[in-house]
Amino acid sequence: MKQLLILGAGTSGTMMANHLNKVLPKDSWNISIVDQEETHYYQPGFLFLPFDLYKTKDVKKKIDKFIPKRVKLINEKIERIDKDKNEVVLKNNTILSYDILIVATGTNIAPQEIEGMLGAHWHKSVFDFYTYEGAKNLRDKLRTWKGGKLVVHISEMPIKCPVAPLEFAFLADSFFTNKGIRDQVEISFVTPMSGAFTKPKATEALNYLLEQKHIKVIPDFNIESVDGPNHKIMDYAGEEVAYDLLVTIPTNMGDPMIKRSGIGDELNYIPTDKATLQTKIKDNIFAIGDATNLPASKAGSVAHFEAEILTENIQRYIAGKELKKEFDGHANCFIETGHGKALLIDFNYTQEPVKGTFPFPGVGPLSLLKETHMNHMGKLAFKWIYWNMLIKGKHIPFVSATMQTSGKQIEETTH
Question: Are the C-beta atoms of 166 and 187 separated by less than 8 Å?
Fold first, then answer.
């Protein structure tokens, strides 16, 4: 029997287990998946937890609920990959051999990378919301916070779900308005980028919304350190920003196992072919989702599109066929803007987000790069789609893995 091994049972790994369960012959392939966690988190829901819009039950489920029975789930920490021996060593010294390896170990926050970010103030006056614990602790803080200077901050790019910090700022505006204390809260958005987002066309639309909601943008802020006792952050140019409550997105890094294996870049991401998803480490090692170094958004929608293409390329690799160079960096992201509205952006490696309709050209019902209530409903519906279709490897009707241009006002192409 041949062995296909998946490392990581988050969004990407679980999707691949379900896809491959359907297409790999049972009489010739064993499939195993390794993860030290026993809980699967709906990470897009972490954005809503701090504002009491979601409960714990909305974002946490048992990990084995979504792994097919045929696939062997191994709950253990991964120590390292030995690419020369085609083996993975687990923390308990178990050695797993493989014929094909898929790395789906994702990315995590690394607050220890910024001087002073961790300390007695962590989850007291300095919070993240990219972890379940961080989002839950921030929820408890916001329930009693009386107002002051709220700073929403990005440490450095790339980060998981680049629109999430903006969404947090927009939802904070809505949250404090509904509590009747918006005039007592000064919201600032501090970013190392020159604008609100990585894409200029989206930045233009988002800047308008930030201005409309009286959210101050402080661009080009490259953080050097956090002064927790004095409630301020400093950048390398000497600029200081004071806060009463800091909601930060720390440096994001790939799994430390990647570093221990000697196969990653400086942020522990795996060099990967951006069109085939085969790694540049070895032909029989593939990578997907946040674990890669692709110049695409680190987002669930991207992993979803990658999974459909990688499934076909795994089959082609087994058959000895040339891999399809099909992945175009397609991303499709809702941006919650508060007060029951949201934007939707659709883009890829070369095409900027543009106006138009999605998924049906000229019909919608979702509008691109436009703030609508229908887009907000689409964002809320995504939770059901995630739990019931996406991670189970079911194709979402009318949504293609590569970006479609029909129905969109294509204005320019950048390379």
Answer: no
Neighbours of 274 (CB within 10 A): 15
Torsions phi, psi of 387, nearest 5? -70, -30
Question: Whose CA is closest to 172, among 127, 131, 116?
Answer: 127
Q: Which two tokens stand for residue 232?
A: 């301020």
CB 105 within 8 A of CB 14: no
The Cα-based distances of 75 to 12, 386, 399 in angstroms read 17, 23, 33
Q: Which residue has the tokens 């803007």?
A: 337
Q: In this structure, which amino acid lies at residue 269?
A: Y
Tell me the C-alpha distance between 274 and 133, whole Å.
Answer: 33
In the chain, what is the greatest distance between 2 CA atoms, to the nearest angstrom? 66
* Half-sphere exposure in the Cβ direction for 279 (13 Å, CA): 24
In the block, which residue shows the tokens 């696939």? 71
Contact residues for 204 (Cβ-Cβ < 8 A; gap 6+)? none
Q: Both tokens of residue 125?
A: 């006056």
* Chain centroid offset of residue 234 CA: 26
Task: Count Cα neighbours of 213 within 13 Å in the Cβ-side half-sphere.
Answer: 28
Instruction: With beta carbons less than 8 A apart as the criterion, state whether 232 and 55 touch.
Output: no
Least confident of 52-61, 191-200, 371-380: 191-200
- Residue 230: per-residue pLDDT: 97
Query: Does residue 185 contact residue 148 with C-beta atoms inside 8 Å?
Result: yes
Q: What is the pLDDT of residues 150-190, one digit of tens each?
A: 999 999 999 999 899 999 999 999 999 999 999 999 999 99
3-class secondary-structure state, position 298? strand
At 4, the amino acid letter reads L
Q: Per-residue pLDDT tens for 89-99? A: 999 999 999 99
- Which SS3 state, helix, strand or coil, does residue 180 take? coil
Give 88-92 contacts, CB < 8 A, sequence gap 24+: 88/5, 88/7, 88/34, 90/34, 91/36
**CB of 267 closer than 8 Å to CB of 252:** yes
Determine the 3-state secondary structure of 30 from DSSP: strand
283: Cα separation from own chain's centroid:
26
